[in-house]
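Anyone? Bumping this.
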Amino acid sequence: MTAGPAEDLQVVGKRLPKLDAPQKVAGQTAYAHDLRMSGLLIGAILRSPHPHARILSIDVSAAAQLPGVHAVVHAGNVEQRRFGYNNDNLPLKQNKVRFIGDEVAAVAAIDEETARHALELIRVDYEVLPAVFDPFEAMDEASPPIHDERLDIKGNVSMRWDFDHGDVDAAASRAAVIVEGNYSSPQAAPAPLETHVIIASFDPSGHLTVWSPVHMVFMYRKALADCLGLDWRQITVIQPSVGGSFGGKIDIDSHDFIAVMLARQARRPVRLAMTREEEFTGTRTRQPIHFRLRTGADAEGNLLFRDAEVVSDNGAYNAWGSHAMLVAMNTITSMYRVPNSRIRCAVVYTNKNYGGSVRGFGNPQATFAVEQQMEEVADALGMDPMDLRLRNANHSGDVTPQGMEITSCALSECLQIVRDQSGWDERRGRMRDRHRGLGAAAMIHVGGGARIYSSDGCGAMVKVDDSGQITLISGASELGQGSETALAMIVAEEMGVPLEAVHVVNSNTDIKPWDVGVHASRTTFVAGNAARMAAAAARDKLLETAGELLGAPSDQLRIRDGAFEVTAEPERRIDFPRVVRRRLLREGGSVVMASSFYDPPTQHQDENYRGNISAAYGFAAHVAEVEVDPGTGMVRLLNLWTAHDVGRAINPMLCEGQIEGGAAMGIGLALSEELVIFDGRIAAPNFHDYGLPTAADVPRIVVNLVETIDPLGPFGAKGVGEAGIIPPPAAIANAVADATGIRPRAYPMRPWEVKRWIDSDERSQVIRGKGSSDHG
Amino acid sequence: MIRQGTTHTIQVTVNGQVYNRVVEARQLLVHFLRDTLDLTGTHIGCDTGSCGACSVIFNGQLVKSCMLLAPQADGAEIETVEGLARSGELDPLQQSFSAHHGLQCGYCTPGMLMTATYLLRQNPTPTEEEIRQGIKGNICRCTGYVNIVRSISAVAEAHRATAVGTTEGRDQQ
């Protein structure tokens, strides 16, 4: 039962509703905010009002005496160890606070009002320190050191990511065209509808249960133990239904530890939920990244080099966001064939909210720079940007300068589809009199896991019980994206049963096998392969028993319509549950259960950032059409055509849903979403001002799924979770350039910014070449 | 003037069920529904009336239940997502959202369904643009609205077909 043509598949490839949809539309799904339990206390966090200050003293006595308060924690009365990348963070800050929102103390009380009142009674004396918000200023060694406990850190540079391939200077000397420019992205928020929420409860034996919408759950459990001095064998983490994450809830953060500290001190269960304001001000963000990029090409349009100086402004602590360069680097070195590349990247501390992992993880930012320069180079060469892209496109069999082994790859087909659908050849460059323009962007992103840890694996178990019901117990979590349904479809296909025969259990660390967690668009690929392997093993056990019962070798049986039958004599058949029962309910019987662990054949990058980090790579191309009001600078997105190489769509409806939802987030990034920060303070931490797109802001999104049937993906599938968000900011910027002749330097491209670029005649900087990129 | 700690006795009909409860003057309607009546299908996505996750139908009007106080609901008839299904069968909008993948994480879905219910009561056959305008007070972060619009359009289409069918039937008579 290997991946065959789609017509041989019974379940995979069908547009089936999500398994959890009926429950969700009925309002019956219990998210962590909806869980009720006896004796539950409400937690609340006291946060720093200063962007940078020394904590001189904390007095919690009045808060502790308030009736109804059951716990008050601060660095002076809890056991805690450092956590985060470079161990640069503490759940409750000890000596210093480093951004407005840093956690200083917390309480647990009988209700929300009492908890908030108790926070007001806590007295903290601060010595306010000079703060720095601009990453370029922060790099000046005269700037205030944000992590002065780290004597090795100079100019607040916490990390460097430097990469060299080939000889950029030699390539530059023979380039016919060189374009150079700055491209910046803002601080943005994952902004799921459900805010962060944790419930922690110790039983009398000391066993801790945590309910959390986290998605790297096994590392979360270990981090809890490491930081709080707990025995991790005595921790169970349960993941209730997740109300969206987009990376925001990926791993552990201060509030998770604080919830456990409160429960420990109160000896009662505690729920710690973020308000929407706290979700914006106190949880991790998408970090701004500033690129100074040069791209050179020869006169025929062959790319010669990319040269990037990058400053990643990760805020007060490193967290995952410090590693967004891991992905941004892939795009600079490996989006299209680029024979020479050089990257100098500094990750910088500033006194702002810190960067975590948000969908796309550095890639929308890098693609904004790289894909704008593709069109700028094409214009400078007098070449069509699509032709330039096709000329330099990645192809199956390529190994990129970072050692990424491209297997399935439909980049050229994707480009051609959106070129045709958008009427690119007839319309691009010809609508400026109507202030309209077309712009394109492609993307490359990991789609077959991403080895960022010793294992990139996922476990799965398949159990068939005496009723014939099949249960998939997967290490991978459902965040709303539909992976649970995709995994169940893979199991159903492999076992020859309809989807409704498969149940999925995936939310309890006591039950489910290990998984790295949901990240890097890896679940369908990695957890899908694991599920498929376990399903095949369970099926083979049943085939063995069915063979005994039917008196035929198991390789002469097939599964059809819920029964095993002899292929040559289909009237000789036995139904599925009966086979299970005949195996189980006898002397010396056995349960039907099989387990698997799939770790993709990938490599850790070496110290030079080389290694095949993923077992497959996803590709896509988008074309955006915009209309720009030259008087106000208002950009209206009229159309977005997308084509995605997904390997195989396990469920095309869900696959399109991922791309559409991702694209809408990309549109939000491009046009409206920004955490506007003044002197370290997020000016308007609410949905009104943040700029999430509404139904009236998102145009029709055309999605084309291109199936390349990846050799290693389950039934040929590749990851698609992040892909949709990556091209839109670049494609929309290119469309604005086509409509106006100006060159966007940053997103979001809000009216006043666009107007400023129009008024100042912001153009592409062509260092060498025909001297103008104005193709209009 | 309401003093802190003041309570009110209210009678509210929710999904056809009459409830008599004593509530604090400052309690928000959404907390009354979720915490007092345990109807947790109505969600809270913000505290500012911006996201629409807490949308309910209040005396026939669409409201965001975080923008009303529980005492204001005295004598009111309220419909929440839990009241959409009849005798255990999902209503056409619920079925359509499920069939057309009009949800992913599902957190906005109850509010979105109440808004769509209200929209279709006002206008049983809205155009796509009218649907987009009608639901723009409800934020969805997962779907890009594509399949939400499709789910509502499918029900509107069914209404249109029924209306046409009725008209044709009349014409034939």
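Late reply, but here is one note on the structure posted above: The radius of gyration of chain B is 18 Å.
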